[in-house]
């Protein structure tokens, strides 16, 4: 059975831990794709908590604005409008596209507060500011990777692990966590899952929108 995550570790926090190189503190996938993935993970947690409701067609509505007493999820919830009184819901792709940076900063602040990452800043060539987030004094990255590997070995047997696998696929993180030919069939299954899970699908759409814009 897949080990349970720490109760206070949200889905976006866990995805971020998986995506950061433990030593260098840099994402192992595109920074933009990761931000979209974190926003999609926040939507998944908000939906599981009953704060938002998927409508179909890539849209969702806010079912309740009541806080969850979690800084990451409450921060994400605060960026959404109040419960709809009619009309169409919020387009998931658009929200993911706009909220990714905010959700990432919420996750990094929370993980730094927990001691899971250390925030290191500097300037490349003395000019360009950068930030790195290597593992901190409390190692939550190792357990997160162990949980992901155990879930992969069991073919992602529970809803949370399936969501995490779908989001990893949507962002391209699956190829980093499950490299090589032996995992290829499972990565294909995760790609299918990423199309079916509405939050992961929104992430895929946001990434594709950027690619289309860059190609035009």
UniProtKB/TrEMBL annotation:
Q: Which domain of life is it from?
A: Bacteria
Q: Which InterPro entries does the protein's record reference? A: GPP34-like, GPP34-like_sf
Recorded hits in Gene3D superfamilies, A to Z, give: yeast vps74-n-term truncation variant domain like
Q: Specify the protein's topology with respect to the membrane.
A: Peripheral membrane protein
Segments traversing the membrane: none
Q: Where in the cell is it found?
A: Golgi apparatus membrane
What keyword terms does UniProt attach to this protein?
A: Golgi apparatus, Lipid-binding, Membrane
Among the GO molecular function terms of this UniProt record, one is:
phosphatidylinositol-4-phosphate binding
Return the GO cellular component terms, semicolon-separated: cytoplasm; endomembrane system
Q: Which Pfam families match?
A: GPP34
Q: Indicate what this protein is called per its UniProt record.
A: GPP34 family phosphoprotein
**Source species, please?**
Streptomyces kasugaensis
């Amino acid at each position: 059975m897949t080990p349970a995550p720490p109760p206070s570790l949200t889905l976006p926090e866990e995805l971020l831990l998986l995506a950061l190189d433990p030593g260098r503190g840099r994402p192992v996938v595109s920074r933009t794709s990761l931000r979209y993935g974190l926003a999609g993970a926040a939507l998944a947690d908000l939906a599981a908590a009953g704060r938002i409701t998927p409508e179909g067609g890539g849209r969702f509505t806010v079912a309740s604005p009541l806080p969850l007493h979690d800084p990451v999820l409450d921060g994400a919830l605060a960026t959404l409008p109040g419960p709809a009184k009619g009309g169409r819901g919020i387009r998931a792709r658009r929200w993911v596209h706009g909220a990714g940076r905010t959700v990432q900063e919420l996750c990094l602040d929370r993980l730094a507060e927990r001691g899971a990452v250390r925030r290191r800043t500097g300037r490349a060539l003395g000019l360009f500011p950068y930030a790195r987030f290597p593992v901190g004094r409390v190692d939550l990255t190792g357990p997160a990777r162990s949980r992901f590997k155990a879930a992969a070995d069991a073919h992602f047997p529970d809803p949370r692990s399936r969501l995490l696998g779908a989001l990893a696929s949507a962002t391209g993180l699956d190829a980093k966590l499950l490299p090589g030919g032996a995992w290829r069939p499972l990565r294909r299954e995760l790609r299918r899952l990423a199309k079916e899970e509405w939050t992961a699908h929104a992430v895929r759409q946001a990434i594709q929108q950027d690619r289309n814009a860059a190609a035009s």
